[in-house]
Fold this sequence. Notes:
Largest sheet: 7 strands, mixed
Number of strands: 7
Shape: globular
Order of helices and strands: EHEHEEHEEEH
CATH class: Alpha Beta
Number of domains: 1
Strand order of the largest sheet: 1-7-6-2-5-4-3
Distance between the termini: 19 Å
Radius of gyration: 14 Å
Strand content: 25-35%
Bound molecules: adenosine-5'-diphosphate, magnesium ion
Number of helices: 4
Helix content: 25-40%
Structural class: alpha/beta
Amino acid sequence: MAESFTFITRSPEETISLGERLGRAAQPSDLVTLSGDLGAGKTHFTKGIAEGLEVKRVVNSPTFTIIKEYKGRLPLYHMDVYRLEEQGGEDLGFEEYFEGEGLTVVEWAEIIKEQLPDHFLDIIIRRDSDTQRTFTFTPYGERYIQLSKELQGK
Length: 154
Ligand code: ADP
Ligand code: MG
């Protein structure tokens, strides 16, 4: 059974720092699914991940491109598969990204759930107030249980 745990952030900067810790701990072929309503903080969190991966370019929402790739200590593959919903989650060769050298972050991952591997870290962001967010991390598979322990400082 995957055990979830939560982090609370109280500013956009704290969300970026949390993402940065994940980016620093990332290894090749890591996969993170990220969900939360509009304005929850998905883009801020991903900017933090990019900082932790030492990506120098500015990270924006990939909505109009579906997949954006950034160079860093490891590559960051940032996907927003929302626009694939109408086609029933058409396969754009996701596996090559999932198995690639980088960390993949997928927004709206439920649309391509049939194409996801068994193991990944699921992150849900909830908006508690104007400035507070609760992050629920659920690790699936040994690698992500390990990564989660690292992030919790265990
Ligand atoms: P999304 O990509 O999920 O739509 P964004 O990261 O683009 O969300 O936007 C989040 C918005 O919420 C920003 O305007 C940001 O300033 C604000 N915000 C307030 N508190 C927080 C917080 N704790 N973490 C992240 N964003 C926050
Ligand atoms: Mg966004």
